Amino acid sequence: MTAQPSEYHRRVAAQKRTSIIEAATKLFLDSGYDGTSLARIAEAAGVSRATLFKQFTTKAALFEAIVTEHWKVDDEEAPLPEPGNLRAGLETIGRRYVALLTQPGMAALFRIVIAEVPRFPELGETQFKLGKMPYFESVRRYLAAENAAGAARLDDAEMAATQFLGMISNHVFWPRMLLARWEPDDSAITNAVDQAVLTMLARYGAPGTPGA
After folding, report:
1. Per the CB 3.0–4.6 Å rule, which of 16, 168, 188, 211 could disulfide with 184?
2. Other Cβ atoms closer than 10 A to 172
């Protein structure tokens, strides 16, 4: 019978995994995806090559882990809002989206993809399929549920999700790609979310429902 790893060993493995992901993200950004070897990543992360290869056998697998880690949302800790109050639900999703986009490393991840996708289109596909789309789909499902509950009136939940997330990211995130010092303060971010919510309520809120 194979012995199960202890809590200590699981914690150490998780710490090493985090170190590897952080080192790889920085090296991919500084030296490019093609110009960074797994050996350099192991050295920068302070782990042996054997430890790195045990967790990630290829750079592609490591990049997939980076994307998944940055877009990870724990459904148990952050379930979709219950339908019935469109305003409250959108406010919750909007705040969570801001937290996701402004977490350390998210801007760097996008810069890596933007810089490397002409030569490595698979990086863009990974970012899209493993990162953006699963999160986007969760918002689309929420809006579809609000529509089914009668709190929203929309024919295209996919388009509504695109509009809502776009209004927030266009203020909170995308300027960071060009402006290194773009750091809107908390009041500006809160206002961006509030205005996006009000716009959605005006466009899609069903009359007489809570929050509309």
Report:
1. 188
2. 22
- The tokens describing 89, both together, are 């639900």
Query: What does the radius of gyration of the chain's CA atoms come to, in whole angstroms?
Result: 20
What would the pLDDT profile of 107-135 be if each residue is shown by its tens digit?
888 989 999 999 999 999 999 998 889 89
d(CA 211, CA 31): 49
172-193 pLDDT per residue, tens: 999 988 887 888 999 999 999 9
Whether the pLDDT of residue 209 is over 90: the answer is no
Domain 7-57 matches domain 71-204 at the CATH topology level:
no
The conformation of residue 150, written as its DSSP 8-state character, comes to T
User: What is the architecture of the domain spanning 7-57?
Assistant: Orthogonal Bundle (1.10)
Using alpha carbons, select from 108, 66, 87 the residue that is nearest to residue 151. 87
Cα 109 to Cα 9, 18, 162, distances in angstroms? 29, 15, 21
Model pTM?
0.83
The DSSP secondary-structure symbol of 181 reads T
